[in-house]
Amino acid sequence: MNFDIITDSASNLPKSYAEKNKVGIISLKYMLEGEEYDSYVENENDDSLKHFYARMREKASTSTSNINAATFEERFTEVLEKGRDILYISFSSGLSSSHSFAESTANELKEKYPDRKIIVIDSLCVTYALGLIIHHVVKMRDSGKTIEEIRDRLEADKKKMIHLFTVDDLVYLKRGGRISPTTAFVGTLLGVKPVMHVTNEGKLEKYDKVKGRKKSLSALVDKLAEMIVNPKEQTVAVVHGDCEEDAEYVKKLIMEKAGVGDVIMDYLTPIIGAHSGPGTIAMFFMGGERMN
Question: For residues 209 and 53, what is the distance between their CA atoms, to the nearest angstrom?
Fold first, then answer.
């Protein structure tokens, strides 16, 4: 096919997968105690991720940055100069401004390269939900679908990709303005854990709260069992913020309660982990439609 698939490192895709399947990755950056790191390099190394979450537990400061227009222009131009088209699938616009930078850059480059196609899609997805979408896009490309056919299918199906999250420490949601200081204080005092999802607008919102860690994990799996379609044909992704034992527990529950075809597990990229903290558990799968 005469087009390149490009996404960003928020997709949580391993470098080995991206290289094997010819997927371009533009890396987002994160800051740890004032020092900048490349999240695409870092997510290949469990030791570096353990270090990242260990530092968070020690109350180290963390932040993330968007991909700027100059970076998009450089990467897109490299592809266009080779006479190839671009299908760029971005991290959710509801959680990052990177999509708008990609879109504005694409519009400028279309004037310079009028014979090339530059399609930018807002995935409305984060972490391995975006990764699973890229996996489906790769399969469509390899089966001979055109760039337009892939675009249309993705636009029709992207809101069926379900995200379910819970966190262990409310302080990180408080820092990000997701919950109030009072809610964080009372919730921590009572052991209340939020159960969250990503909306049709690609934003992270709470839909329930339960008391206790184990109950929050069970609540995620119960919601998955309720929402998943064709579970035996699906691969569910579970990512964790350095809490592998809890992720294994969730994997076991998913297999028991939903009977899915496969469950893959991985560390949560610092791009999301910086805002949700150690102990985050998230799962991603195809459903009928998202809650809103």
Answer: 24
Closest by CA position to 235, among listed 266, 267, 206 = 266
Rounded-to-integer distance, Cα 240 and Cα 127, Å? 11
Residue 236: predicted pLDDT = 95
Q: Are strands 262-267 and 235-240 parallel, antiparallel or unpaired?
A: parallel
Give residue-wise pLDDT tens across range 83-108: 999 999 999 999 889 999 999 999 99
Q: Is the dihedral of CA 62, 46, 43, 91 positive or negative?
A: negative
Is 178's pLDDT higher than 70? no
pLDDT tens digits for range 8-45: 999 989 888 999 999 999 999 999 999 998 887 655 55
Tokens of 21: 């399947």
* pLDDT given at position 284: 97
Tokens of 210: 């339960």
Separation in Å, CA 216 to CA 53, 102, 285: 21, 36, 18
Amino acid at 184: A
Residue closest to 10 by CA, chosen among 90, 106, 88: 90
Q: Please give the C-alpha separations between residue 286 and each of 7, 110, 263, in angstroms, as whole numbers.
A: 20, 33, 13
Check: CB of residue 28 under 8 Å from CB of residue 35.
no
